[in-house]
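Design a sequence for this backbone.
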């Protein structure tokens, strides 16, 4: 069987994964239902860009590179309105 090319969408830090469930290092925020370590770190237009508030700690733990997948996080394009908002803002900025 011939190998088929696989297209992987890059992580653009929409926070989608952490909004669905925390990783093994996180906890659920009772108010939002998101991971309590999810932090808004910047914006592109009015689209928030997220990061992990425990990133520095997690990087010191054995096996951190396997969970969570920083930099390759959730690339889901389905039902990820925040991702689409970020992409629209980037396209507007680029003209």
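Sequence:
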């Amino acid at each position: 069987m011939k190998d088929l090319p696989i297209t992987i969408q890059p992580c653009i830090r929409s926070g989608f994964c952490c909004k669905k469930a925390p990783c093994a290092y996180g906890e659920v925020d009772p108010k939002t239902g998101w991971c309590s370590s999810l932090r808004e770190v910047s914006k592109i237009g009015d689209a928030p860009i997220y990061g992990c508030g425990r990133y520095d700690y997690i990087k010191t733990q054995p096996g951190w590179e396997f969970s969570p997948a920083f930099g390759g996080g959730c690339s889901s394009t389905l039902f990820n309105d925040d991702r689409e908002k970020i992409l629209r803002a980037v396209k507007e900025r680029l003209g």
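Helices lie at 16-20, 55-58, 81-94.
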